[in-house]
Amino acid sequence: MALPEPSESTTALVTGASAGIGEAIARELASRGHGVALVARREERLQTLAGELRERRGVRAEAIAADLADPAARRRLADQIAGLGLEVEILVNNAGFGYSGNLVDSDPERLVAMLRVNCEALLDLQTRYLPGMVERGEGAVINIASTSAFQPIPGTATYAATKAFVLSLSEAVREELKGTGVTLTAVCPGPVKTEFTRMAGIEHTEDQLPDIFWTSSEAVAKAAVDGAESGKRVVVPGLLNRAGAITGQHTPRTLVLPIAKRVWKQAL
């Protein structure tokens, strides 16, 4: 169930690689000898990271700027990867962002854009690259979900729903892939101190939430790659996060919804 062996003609495509968990996963894969294709909107950051990985790890590292919310950009991305003579044998669907606030008070365009990145782009890339992996008989997909996937969360309803989609899709497709030599792992981090909190408008939670609840990007990245290496179905980094995931899954909705609403309201 190990990850495919690195080679000059294969790459690990990592989306959202310009910062946070995506950057950390790219570093983790490169440290294990895998070439990487780094994708995000901020090309300058990608180029800096790619240069560092080439110099320090001796791997092939490509930087490709793309707005994954745009279907045309995703098609161009696939063409660019093919034009480089690379086969994607590891796909890391990490790109995504959050949004806080009640639905009725939210910017509809922002919510739809979040859906396109968190769900549509992930599904698109998965359907583009899984057939080739299956045909070759090896490959791995890592989909970054969230502990938000385990229960509805009033106050960030759409974001939690997008991550529930990612988790549900990942678990079902993993079962479809059994016996093909291809693995699929969903990773469900809890709170992580990255640019994500600022983009979601909840950066002040970093001061309100005790350190024991936070996990570093590096720890999440190692857990993600180790989990894919072991062929795990779902990875929830951190003991408290695993306990929360179990609670969120099995507590009756009539109990969990008011609690989730109150906790999230206090965090805003």
Report on this structure.
By secondary structure, the chain is α/β, with parallel strands linked by helices. Helix content is 51%, strand content 14%. It contains 10 helices and 7 strands. It has helices at residues 20-31, 43-57, 71-83, 108-136, 157-176, 196-199, 205-208, 217-229, 239-250, 253-267, and strands at 10-15, 36-40, 61-65, 87-93, 139-144, 182-187, 234-235. A 7-stranded parallel sheet has the order 3-2-1-4-5-6-7, sandwiched between helices. β1, α1 (20-31) and β2 (36-40) form a beta-alpha-beta unit. α1 (20-31) packs across α8 (217-229) and α4 packs parallel to α5. The protein is globular. The mean pLDDT is 88.
Briefly note the structural class of the backbone: alpha/beta
Poorly predicted residue ranges: none
**Total strands:** 7
Give the biggest sheet. 7 strands, parallel
Q: What is the CA-CA span between the terminal residues?
A: 42 Å
- Assess the beta-strand content as a share of residues: 5-15%
What do the pLDDT scores average to? 88
Number of helices: 10
Strand order of the largest sheet: 3-2-1-4-5-6-7
Helix content: 40-55%
